[in-house]
Design a protein that fits this description.
single chain; D-Maltodextrin-Binding Protein, domain 2; 11 strands; globular
């Protein structure tokens, strides 16, 4: 009899423990994540974000869900990176120019005429550069790159004046990101760099508040900036690092959810790179068909003018190790 009572007591204790444990397991598995970005819906990076979310939710059988806020719904890039840093946001994708506000050394990726080709960029970010950079980010802000995407080389678009030579840059009010390398670069090119939040660019061009804009083909086409800036100068002056970032909160997620997110980031990385490269030429063709006129000036004076920007940046930020990774992969 005593044995039966003892067994019954053990069963009840075990059952109670199971009931108590069940909500804890459910709570652990009910992972709710938030992803926000600043690109227009339909841009290749927006498509990549949606695919990332789909993979994460599918491979966790819906136990991890990701809510998406595209097109500046939660703020512009710098604000989104701040939300990542404070743990109020789990994922965003943005460029190294924005991240330079948090870690100045990352702007080594943004220095003018650094990248020889898309393949050069891929060799760098797929190599030891990224672990070294993530180590710096972790110590400073907690940010971490899960994958690197491709945003293309940036060119200059102007309202009225076509840029056919280096001298034509003088005095033009060119919208540039709120990042020191961009501002220094356009000052060296004798333009007047004018930082503006991205959502204000179209109306500023339309109203003549600024003379021009610099950006990649994808963002110009998806935001329809070519409608108000009909002159395209093929400069390829900068190509920023562009990728999927997370923050300190990522390390607190269940290990299996982290693993799914990392794998999803790599899968989407390959997809986005391929898609953006394949569509670049077609995007230019579409813009030309819409009335955009191209100019191809001699870039030698442009390159010479920005050499002091490189020298000053490396001296100020002590970026020898990161610079060496880039140089070693130049081929």
């Amino acid at each position: 009899m005593k044995s039966i009572q003892s067994s019954r007591r053990g069963f009840l204790i075990g059952t109670s423990a199971t009931l108590l444990a069940a909500p804890a397991i459910a709570q652990r598995r009910a992972v709710r994540l938030r992803y926000a970005h600043s690109q227009p819906v339909g841009h290749s990076t927006d498509t990549a974000a949606r695919r990332f979310i789909e993979i994460v939710q599918t491979k966790t059988n819906g136990e991890a869900t990701v809510e998406l806020f595209p097109n500046n719904q939660l703020g512009v890039d710098r604000e989104l990176q701040t939300l990542i840093e404070t743990g109020q946001l789990d994922f965003t994708h943005s460029n190294s120019a924005t991240m330079g506000n948090f870690l100045p050394q990352i702007a080594v990726m943004d220095l003018p005429f650094t990248w020889r080709s898309a393949d050069h960029y891929f060799r760098v970010v797929d190599g030891p550069f990224t672990p070294a950079l993530n180590e710096l980010l972790a110590a400073r802000t907690g940010h971490r790159y899960l994958g690197w995407w491709y945003d293309g080389f940036r060119h200059v678009y102007t309202r009225n004046k076509a840029i056919k030579s280096f001298d034509d840059m003088r005095g033009l009010k060119i919208r540039a990101p709120e990042a020191r390398v961009f501002v220094d670069t356009f000052r060296a090119l004798r333009a007047n760099p004018t930082p503006l939040p991205f959502p204000e660019i179209y109306t500023a061009l339309e109203a003549g508040v600024i003379d021009g804009f610099e950006g990649s083909n994808g963002i110009v086409q998806s935001s329809k900036i070519y409608e108000v800036a009909k002159n395209r100068t093929v400069t390829g002056h900068i190509m920023v690092g562009f990728g999927l970032t997370t923050g300190k909160r990522f390390a607190t997620l269940p290990a299996d959810v982290q693993a799914v997110c990392v794998a999803a980031a790599k899968e989407v990385e390959a997809m986005q790179r391929k898609s953006e490269q394949e569509t670049e030429t077609d995007l230019v063709r579409q813009m030309v068909a819409a009335g955009v006129v191209e100019s191809t000036p001699d870039l030698a004076p442009f390159r010479a003018a920005v050499e002091p920007v490189h020298a000053e940046f490396h001296t100020r930020n002590k970026t020898e190790a990161l610079r060496n990774f880039i140089a070693a992969a130049a081929g």
